[in-house]
Amino acid sequence: MPDTVYFNGAYLEREQVRISPDDRGFLFADGIYEVVRFYGGRPFELGAHVRRMRDGLAALRIEGVDPDSIPGIGAELLARNDLESSDAILYLQVTRGAAPRVHHFPDSQVEPTLFVTVRAFTPSVDPSEGVGVITAPDHRWTRCDIKSVSLLPNCMAAQDAHERGAYEAVLVRDGVALEGTRSSFFAVIDGEVRTAPNSNYILPGVTRAVALELCEDAEIPFAERPVLVDEMLRADELFLAGTTTEIMPIVELDGSPVGSGKPGAITSVLADRFRTRIESL
Ligand SMILES: Cc1ncc(COP(=O)(O)O)c(C=O)c1O
Which helix (H) or strand (E) segment is 236 a member of? Predict the structure, then answer.
C-alpha cells in the first residue's frame, strides 16, 4: 500500500519526511490543521475548510502557504494513494517552521512547514444507533476559534471519555455546554435546535454550519444561543456534528439516557438530509 504524503513542496513516502527538532510546531504547537472528508473521492465542503485555514493562518500571522494549493495537493495525493474513488480523509498541518527557540515569532521570515496526508476512512460508529458522551470541564484556552494543533486539553477530555466507554466529551465552561473535543454540539429543546454561537470559545465547525443550513431547508426552528447545562440535561434530543462524526445522535449523557434513549426524530431528519447531501456530491 503506498503512503505518499506531501511535505514542503514534494510528494514523498511517509518515512522519508524529516521535520526539524526546532520546528515551532514541535516546540510550541505553533500551527494549525484541517481535516477534510472525501466521499467516493469527492471532497465535502472543501471551500469552507480552505477558508478556515486561511483565517487560522491570518490569526497566527503565518505566511508563505497558499490555502488555495490544498485542493490540487489533495487530488494528487488521492491519485498517488489509489484513493481517487474512495471514502477518505485528508489531514493537513501548517506550522510556523524551524527557528531558534524563543517564544516570540522569528524576527526574519522562516519557511513554514506544510504537511498533508490522506488515508481511507470508514466511520467506526453507526448514526442509526447513536453514541454515549460524557461532560467534562473545558480546560482549553480562549481562542478555540483557531484550529490550532495545541490539542492537549481536547486529548485529555477525549481520554476521559474513552476510559468511560463514551464516544466523545462535551466540554462545559461557566455552565455552558460548548462543543465536543472534535465535534460541534447541538441540543433540541422544545422543538428548537440550539447550538452555541460562534465566538472565541468554539471552533466555527464546517459541519455545524451545514447542520444549521439543513435546519433551515427542513424548516426546523433553530437558534445559535448558548446551551446551559441544565437545558442540556432536560433536552429532548442531543447530537454532535463534525467532519469525522457527521451528524451523530447522542443517546446517553453521563450514563443516563437522552430522551427515549434512541436517536431523536429531529436529529434523524437532519442525519437523513446530511446523507442525501453527501450522495448528491
Ligand atoms: C473542537 C472542535 N469542534 C468542532 C469540530 C467540528 O468541526 P468540523 O465540522 O469543521 O470538522 C472539530 C473538528 O475537529 C473540533 O476539533
Answer: none
Ligand 1 pocket member 203 (CB < 6 A): yes
Catalytic residue among 49, 147, 173, 208: 147
Model pLDDT for residues 185-198, shown as the tens digit of each residue: 999 999 999 999 99
Specify if 125 maps to a domain: no
Domain that includes residue 13, residue range: 4-120
Q: What are phi and psi of 99, to 5 degrees?
A: -160, 155
Using CA positions, which residue lies closest to atom 3 of ligand 1?
183
Closest residue (by CA) to atom 16 of ligand 1? 182
- Other beta carbons within 10 Å of 273: 19
Do 82 and 120 form a contact (C-beta atoms < 8 A)?
A: no
Residue 252 CB less than 6 A away from ligand 1: no
Ligand 1, atom 4, lies closest to the CA of 183
Q: Is the CB of 205 under 6 A from ligand 1?
A: yes
In a domain, 126, yes or no: no
Per-residue pLDDT of 225-260, as tens digits, reads: 999 999 999 999 999 999 999 999 999 999 999 999
Structural domains in the chain (count): 2
pLDDT tens-digit profile of 47-56?
Answer: 999 999 999 9
- Cα distance between residue 114 and residue 106, in whole Å: 17
**Is residue 138 lining ligand 1, measured as CB closer than 6 Å?**
no
pTM over 0.90: yes
The string of pLDDT tens digits covering residues 57-66 is: 999 999 999 9
Q: Tell me, yes or no, whether 162 and 67 share the same domain.
A: no
